[in-house]
Structures are given as structure tokens and as C-alpha cells.
Amino acid sequence: MELTNKQITVIFKALCDENRVQIFRLLQNGEKCACKLLEAMQCTQPTLSHHMKILCDSGLVVGRKEGKWMYYSISPEGTEKAVNVLRELTKVSDSGECCCK
Amino acid sequence: MELTNKQITVIFKALCDENRVQIFRLLQNGEKCACKLLEAMQCTQPTLSHHMKILCDSGLVVGRKEGKWMYYSISPEGTEKAVNVLRELTKVSDSGECCCK
DNA sequence: AAAACATATTGACAAGCTTCAATATGTGTG
DNA sequence: CACACATATTGAAGCTTGTCAATATGTTTT
Asked: pTM for the full model?
């Protein structure tokens, strides 16, 4: 299953913002509801909602709705996939020399 | 050695742009000089230079100067570190439940 | 059904990023 | 030393992203 360059950028955009990195740290000890995340973060509710959308789009985080609450957690499948993508993309085959040498 | 949130974003910004993802693909089969990369990419020389700077800043790519040529390659140390950072940041400890539950 | 609550969406503005033309720096060559 | 060449830097334009106030949507409670 090959990903396009575009799809790859979507995954890693999750980690391109300090606030979103902070959200990962908050989610490390398990699922958290949006209200708890909002308490811990220093931003408004719409801003948090925006970041959570980007995180979910990346596949690294999954959301689960329960009544009026929204629970977010780190996706083991998503993160495993991200690690594999990173590994693949940075794997060196070294099958040749550059002509300029 | 703990990284700040900011430092983590610097690493993954390397992979937030389609062109830079493309550059990784070009570097996968070994070190390449800037002129070869420029040939393969569809951008101007200053733009490539800018992307290479971001890639080097991330630590995922290293540059080596030889005469008037600049050779770039994927850094095994940098990529290993990035994988570890990604693993650490997305590791779930699951040491508690959210209060809202 | 209305009120209270949690989260999402919209629209606007500011900050940051990508891109290029022009120019600068540094290296080898005649 | 002057010229050609490879790459880097600067400055400006356009696009994208992050942020917030205001508002909308959907859920529970009274």
C-alpha cells in the first residue's frame, strides 16, 4: 500500500506544531476527554478543536464520541504506520554513486 | 537527553512538505549532489537550497562540501533518532482514566 | 420544550511557509 | 587576477496555518 507524498505530509503535520506535540504528551497516559485537554492547554476551545481535527486526520490520534463528550487517544495502529512510513522513507539503499563524484 | 516540543517540531517539519518528501526518495539510493537534486526537482535553485537547509536542520539529512559541490545524504543517526522520538512521543503508558468517564 | 453544557464550524486576522528573482559567497580554471 | 560555475542568502509576493470571537450543532437535564 503506497502512500503519496501528499499523504505522508498529512501524517507528519501532526508533529509540526508545539501545541500538538504537547497534546501527545497529555495523551500518553491514556485516553482523555476534550475538556481535560482544554484545561491543560493554553488555548481556546475552537483552537483545541482545530488541532484535534489535524491530529485525527493524521491517523495518529483517534476520537470517540460518548454522549456530549469526545474522548481522544493515541492510535497504536496509526503510530505504528507512521513509524513504518518514516523508516521506509529514510531507508538508504545505496545502489549507486552520484555522477558528480 | 530530553528534547523540547519546539525541537521535536523541527525534526518533523522536514516531512511536512511534498517537495522535501520527494527529496528523501531521491536520496534513498545514496548521496547526491545538489545539482543532481535540482535536475530531478521542479523548482529553482534557491528553493532547493532552502529545502536542503530545513532538511539539514532537522538532522535527517547531512550535507558535505567538496570543492564547489555540495553532497547530501540521509543521516542514519538522525533518522534513527527521529524514529525514537516518534516512538517515545506516541508511546501509551495508560496509567489512568480520564475523570470525565 | 427550554436551558445548560460540550464540542464543532465559520469568518477574520496575524504569523509562518514556500517560492522566485536578484544578488552574494566561495571554489576552480584559464 | 578575472571569469565561470555551484551553492547560499536576501527580500518580496502569495499561499497556508494558527488563533480567536461568534455562532452552530448536538446531548443531557430539568
From this structure: 0.90
